[in-house]
Amino acid sequence: MKAVIINFKAYGEGSGERALALAKAVKEISEKVDFYMAIAPNFLDIPEIVKSVDIDVFAQHADAVSYGSHTGRITPEMLKEKGVKGSLINHSERRLRLADIDYLVSKFKELGLTSVVCTNNVSTTRAAAALSPDYVAIEPPELIGSGIPVSKAEPEVVENSVKAAKGINPEVKVLCGAGIATYEDVVAAIDLGADGVLLASGVVKASDQKRALEELVGLR
Ligand SMILES: O=C[C@H](O)COP(=O)(O)O
């Protein structure tokens, strides 16, 4: 099943009570379509959403450390304890070192968490795929939040990332993201070989989030 993962980022429109409402809207829509839909709210909203909404919840980041003397860190074990499905790793707005990405992908496997490693171009997608995460998500940073969909503006980046990742490890699923907002954008991504999309502003910043969700998955 193709995946649609919605990152709430640190947007006010996807925080607190609004995060909970949006999570419920995503859950409701997910029951009407043939997409795997999941969300990535901020850390503070995760426990409440996990408790109240039956949907896969991802963190937006994890730190490459285990329990111990670290201040202000979120370890994979903590995420596991809170009932999250997995996490974005190395998002463009929260980059990590290669060794940290490697640590997290391995630790996630050990804990049964799903890893979504974000990348910015074909070469980094190839490098990320070599670590055998569950997903890589190719997102050209300049298109993030631009409203210009990567699947239309830079189709070759998506297509070549899919080829590069599958060439290294056919098991790795490839998402694309940046500027995705409509069903047409999603279909374009899938036509380029992507296993789904990772998006944020097209839904979270929309004046009518539910309507934006419906448009995204082809219900309108
Ligand atoms: O995690 C999501 C990506 O950074 C894409 O963001 P965007 O949909 O606002 O362009």
TrEMBL record:
Task: State the CDD domains in the record.
Answer: TIM (cd00311)
Q: Give EC number(s), comma-separated.
A: 5.3.1.1
**What is the main EC category here?**
isomerase
Q: Which Pfam families match?
A: TIM
The active site consists of H91, E139
* Pathway as given in its UniProt record: Carbohydrate degradation; glycolysis; D-glyceraldehyde 3-phosphate from glycerone phosphate: step 1/1; Carbohydrate biosynthesis; gluconeogenesis
Q: Which residues bind substrate?
A: N7, F8, K9, I144, G179, A200, S201
Q: Does the keyword Cytoplasm apply?
A: yes
- Can you state which reaction this protein catalyses? D-glyceraldehyde 3-phosphate = dihydroxyacetone phosphate
Matching PANTHER family: TRIOSEPHOSPHATE ISOMERASE
* Quaternary context: Homotetramer; dimer of dimers.
Name the NCBIfam families for this protein: PRK04302.1, tim
Biological function = Involved in the gluconeogenesis. Catalyzes stereospecifically the conversion of dihydroxyacetone phosphate (DHAP) to D-glyceraldehyde-3-phosphate (G3P).
Protein name per Swiss-Prot or TrEMBL: Triosephosphate isomerase
